[in-house]
Amino acid sequence: MRPVPTRQPARQPAGRSPRRSARRLLALGAVAVLLLAACTSAPDDDEEQPEDFSPAPAPGERWQPAPGVSWQWQITGKLDTSVKAAVYDIDGFTTTKEQVAELKAAGRRTICYLSTGAWEDFRPDAGAFPPSMRGEGNGWEGERWLDIRRLAELEPLIAKRFDMCRDKGFDAVEPDNMDAYRNKSGFPLTAGDQLNYNRLIVRLAHDRGLSVGLKNDLDQIPELVGDFDFAVNEQCAQYDECARLTPFVVAGKAVFHVEYELPASRFCAASRALKLSSLEKKYDLGAWRKAC
């Protein structure tokens, strides 16, 4: 399984969450619903959530998760397939083809979690990424930002990973660490570099019949909402940024959202108003969840 890294108490300063202390952009509509959320109770931990299954795509089409669909995100620990969620976002390397088939037989859709923007020293293909491509650490043990400008070299490496997701039977991919240009990567990356790389990721996924989600990278949503099939966000409620994900919902595309430091009672009402698929999770992203 993916080892639990020794991390900062919050996902900082690296690229999995919107850690921009200088930026606190607020949408007035989001303020109102967040205030409502503060006095609204969330479901109890042991309360069963509805199995609002996400329908399978038509033959020859990609799966398209709809706003508000239930989900589970687990990338550490023994996979718990009993969670009442329509969508499972799980580790692409450690999840077996048989586990994906089990979830599919139960009517679940599956998302293949991979890091496409950072090198991980614990992955079986780690040696395929040359040292010169590895930049600064991203705040997670054993991980370093990748030089995403080197598209020709990265394409076959990422393509092989996406082949693995397809061959295991996944419906989609969640490419992580997709906002290196906003972080201290060790490379002079620009917003244009990030757009080029993110669109390469989309093409590689779509060429294999896989849907693909935009991970964080809120600043580039206007340019990328038409390319990606859904979004995955961490801590938008904590940083008052959830309204910025509205373009995905308006386009009929799911936004899978998680908070670590806020209790569900603080954000669930706002999430429901914005039609987000929201969870409270612990930082290790094990099986525990509290769904809105």
Q: Any overview of this molecule?
A:
This protein is an alpha/beta fold and 292 residues long. The chain has a single domain, classed as TIM Barrel, CATH 3.20.20. It has helices spanning 28-37, 97-105, 151-168, 191-207, 221-224, 246-250, 264-274, and strands at residues 71-74, 87-91, 109-115, 118-120, 134-137, 143-146, 172-176, 211-215, 230-234, 255-259, 277-280, 290-291. A nine-stranded mixed sheet has the order 1-2-3-7-8-9-10-11-12. The longest helix is centred in the middle third of the chain and has 18 residues, at 151-168. 47% of the residues are buried.
Considering the chains and any ligands shown, give keywords for the structure.
single chain; 292 residues; alpha/beta; TIM Barrel; nine-stranded mixed β-sheet; three-stranded antiparallel β-sheet; 12 strands; 18% strand
Whole-number mean pLDDT: 86
**CATH C-level name:** Alpha Beta
CATH level 3 topology:
TIM Barrel
Low-pLDDT regions: 1-50
Largest sheet, strands/sense/barrel: 9 strands, mixed
Run of helices and strands: HEEHEEEEHEHEHEHEHEE
* Strand line-up of the largest beta sheet: 1-2-3-7-8-9-10-11-12
The secondary-structure class comes to alpha/beta
Number of DSSP E strands:
12
State the domain count: 1
> In DSSP terms, counting alpha (H) and pi (I) runs of 4 or more, how many helices?
7
Distance between the termini: 27 Å
Radius of gyration: 18 Å
What is the annotated CATH architecture?
Alpha-Beta Barrel
* Shape descriptor: globular
Name the helicity range: 25-40%
| CATH superfamily membership | Aldolase class I
- Portion in strands: 15-25%
